[in-house]
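We modelled the chain as a single entity of 91 amino acids. Its sequence is:
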Amino acid sequence: MLVSGGAKPTAGAGLTPAKLGTIKRPGGQMQVTYNGLPLYRYSADKKSGEVLGEGVGGVWFAVSSAGKIVKHAPAATTTTTPTTTSGGYGY
């Protein structure tokens, strides 16, 4: 998320204003940060609350209102063990 000129970002509900800041990008633009972490928007997120970019490429993660990176555990995988029967007897 970028701000132009001398604009200062403002904290929304649930955020700590002191954790909000900016850093200068190599091209001179000002990048918004929260607790020192740069904030970005994912282009596929169209509605409020969408986080389709979460975990993309293993480098893009959401930031909590506490200013910490939120890495969700990968979805659990299920494996099945094939069962075999021999001679009609079960053990």
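As a brief sanity check on the tokenised model: Residues 79-91 have pLDDT under 50 and may be disordered. The beta strands are 2-3, 20-24, 30-34, 37-38, 62-63, 69-70.
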